[in-house]
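Field reference: sequence -> structure
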Amino acid sequence: MTVTERLAQVVGETYVSTDPDVLAGRSVDHTGRYRGRAGALVRPGSADEVAAVLAACRQAGAYVTVQGGRTSLVAGTVPEHDDVLLSTERLHEIGEVDATERRISVGAGVTLAEVQRAAAAAGLVFGVDLAARDTATVGGMASTNAGGLRTVRYGNMGEQVIGLDVALPDGSVVRRHSRVRMDNTGYDLASLFVGAEGTLGVITALDLRLHPAPPHRVTAVCGFADLAALVAAGRVFRDLDGIAALEMIDGRAGTLTAEHAGVPAPVDGAWLLLVELAGDSDQTERLADAIETVDLCGEPAVGVDPTAQQRLWQVREAVAEVLGVYGPPLKFDVSLPLSSIPGFADDAVALVGEHAEEAIPVLFGHIGEGNLHLNLVRCTLDGAREHALYAAMMELIATHGGNVSSEHGVGTKKRDYVTMSRSDADIAAMRTVKAAFDPTGYLNPAVLFG
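Structure field:
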């Protein structure tokens, strides 16, 4: 019996496909730069079916690549070994919001936007927000410990996960749920799978923490003549009570959004900083006092009502829309000490100029955490030339004291550079954990270790 026949017995023939066109469409990453190859697609509809699929693939010696919303920016869902693609898209149950305990239970295939809508309907808010909210699934977000636009206030995805179901590589299912707020019984298994990028098991369902929705909110976009001044302001704003968002935007990004999305920057400046405060009382005066202490290059744009706030957010949201206007951008996700950011920005522009003169470097991200996204727009490099630039950029990040992987994870794209951020002993310990859960190495084999 072939592996596809075994899979059809588990989930039904309707949910198994070997169509070449289907597999080709599922074997390319979100950016369009990286392609792989797959042998079959399977779409289980429950945790038990996921576990049975894993058992069948393990017994058949087939590699498995797990796919959620396929929004990975580091080729984390691109198969390399004629893999079976295991999609979580049918795990889309959404439970009732528990407004008293402020939590919700959802399937791993539920999108971020669906969770946000369910929370909002109950007068609550989910602590993570991403530009890819309409397609990113919460299972994939937990697997990469995603951050995003609200991290400065609520933390990463891991801080929102309070329980989960995981199908393990041996075909069993761990269901870790608790109704109490303090539970230190044994190992914290849930946190082990958050950020593991699907290498230890397949997250099938999650209990997610929700938060009270602040009734008052104020937003501002400030312009700065140089990046050092913006970083200094970022230190001031991130320590404010009520900080809700703190987003840096390269002036070059503002030029692109104006030209290609009709969304001009609301203020002048080589660098823009979007800051938002939220709380139980009016935050306008607190924000105004903080703005008085920083070195702006002009008057800020301030929004105190939802319409004005949405207008100020448009330039940040539009950045993601315009990055692909000249073709797939080359993306770098990096965490840096705040003190290193101005120097890194200058050195990165110079490095890009050496390797790809035609490319436009665009830098934006979450300045509160030093988590930046460097995107090379109009970058036509491929093959050896792209690899040379990528390797040089990874080295530059390490030289500036940064981490080669932040909220996007390692995936397959950065696995060769993990040693720049982790010691040999650290990597050996991670490999030991991987071997304990997946001794044959068949689950997400291209990710993290390769």
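Note: The domain at 216-322 is CATH 3.30.70.2190 (Alpha-Beta Plaits).
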